[in-house]
Design a protein that fits this description.
The chain has 309 residues and is mostly helical. Helix content is 67%, strand content 2%. The chain has a two-stranded antiparallel ribbon with strand order 1-2. A hairpin with a 4-residue loop joins strand 1 and strand 2. It binds 3-hydroxybutanoyl-coenzyme A.
């Protein structure tokens, strides 16, 4: 970049203004955005699988309709985010290939199985709740298309989180078996939900630079703490126990103290050794293969229309 372009970029970031696709930007800024937006998009698409697993087994038409709407929303979130990534000069084909080959990641949380119907509620309450904490600040991220995609995504995440909480609250008013099912689900998903925010700040190679560029507005640990502070009162209202004996109100800090996630487990899952990593990618690969005829037909139609046009 020229000195003028460099200065313009730095001044735009310093003013908390937006960098737009046609603006000059450092290669490393572009690559960091492609990495993060691609991971975010991949997470939305892979995230359809855990809950999609329960669509045919939802206990009522109402619950099935809600779950269908949520899973469909996640597909839309993935498409908004892939579109935002494409403004940085990377193709949809390349992004899909990077996901399927493991060259790019998706959120660790989606490598855990959904073993009971209560998981549908827990994912809405905890996973989408964590996503809200992580995504609301991204509405103010320095890259225009990414921040604008977040506006609608965050509005839909609120519905996702509320429907999950309402599902669990209904089960907690049910039988002992239903209450036990909710507690067992929360026990399985609590720590992986805290891991969604990434490694501790001291072990995060990207946070400092992403904060300097205004891509991230808060650190991993700040957002994790915000999520715990938001969620503990909700757990009390639900009547569930969060599986962390270190959880305690710290009056001095006006925030909760809480235990450390198992970072060895986190890195193992990130590196591909989680309970469902292979299954999730195999399912995505199968969906891609099954859709080949649609892509070929659409291209043939576009070429024919172009010839006749
Ligand atoms: N899962 C998988 N990989 C993770 C991870 C996680 N939970 N947290 C961190 N990592 C990876 C990073 O990608 C990075 O690896 P890389 O260099 O190979 O890309 C490495 O661990 C170091 O982590 P950093 O904290 O330094 O990396 P980042 O600065 O990128 O921060 C992040 C990680 C907080 C997840 C950030 O990328 C982010 O905010 N991403 C966008 C939001 C997002 O992806 N949210 C979660 C999924 S979306 C969702 O939940 C959908 C909802 O509808 C349910």
């Amino acid at each position: 970049m020229s000195d003028v372009a460099d200065r313009t970029f730095e001044e735009t970031i310093a003013r908390h203004d937006r960098i737009e696709p046609r603006d000059a930007m450092p290669d490393d800024y572009r690559h960091t955005l492609i990495r993060q937006i691609a991971q975010h998009a991949h997470s939305e698409i892979i995230g359809m699988q855990p809950e999609g697993n329960w669509i045919t087994r939802a206990p009522s038409l109402r619950r099935k309709a809600i779950l269908l709407a949520k899973v469909q929303d996640e597909a839309g979130h993935g498409l908004y985010l892939y579109s935002a990534a494409e403004t940085l000069g990377v193709s949809r084909e390349e992004l899909t290939r990077n996901l399927l080959t493991g060259a790019q990641k998706y959120s660790s949380i989606f490598n855990y199985p959904t073993l009971s119907y209560a998981d549908v509620g827990t994912i809405g309450w905890l996973v989408d709740g964590a996503a809200i904490c992580n995504q609301v600040p991204l509405c103010r991220t320095s890259y225009g298309p990414y921040g604008r995609a977040m506006i609608r995504i965050c509005k839909e995440e609120s519905f996702h989180q509320r429907q999950g909480y309402e599902l669990l609250a209904t089960m907690m008013r049910g039988t002992d078996e239903q209450r036990a099912m909710v507690q067992e689900s929360v026990d399985r998903f609590w720590w992986p939900s805290l891991m969604m925010f990434g490694p501790p700040d001291g072990d995060s190679p990207h946070t400092a630079q992403s904060m300097a560029w205004g891509i991230k507005r808060h650190t991993n640990d700040e957002l994790r703490r915000w999520f715990v502070d938001m969620t503990v009162p909700q757990a009390e209202a639900l009547g569930v126990t969060l599986p962390d004996p270190a959880l305690a109100w710290n009056a001095e800090r006006a925030s909760y103290d809480f235990g450390e996630p198992d970072w060895d487990e986190f890195w193992a899952v990130v590196k591909g050794d989680g309970p469902c990593n292979a299954q999730r990618l195999a399912h995505r690969q199968q969906a891609y293969d099954d859709g080949a005829w649609v892509r070929e037909a659409a291209l043939a139609f576009a070429e024919k229309a172009g010839d006749e046009g």
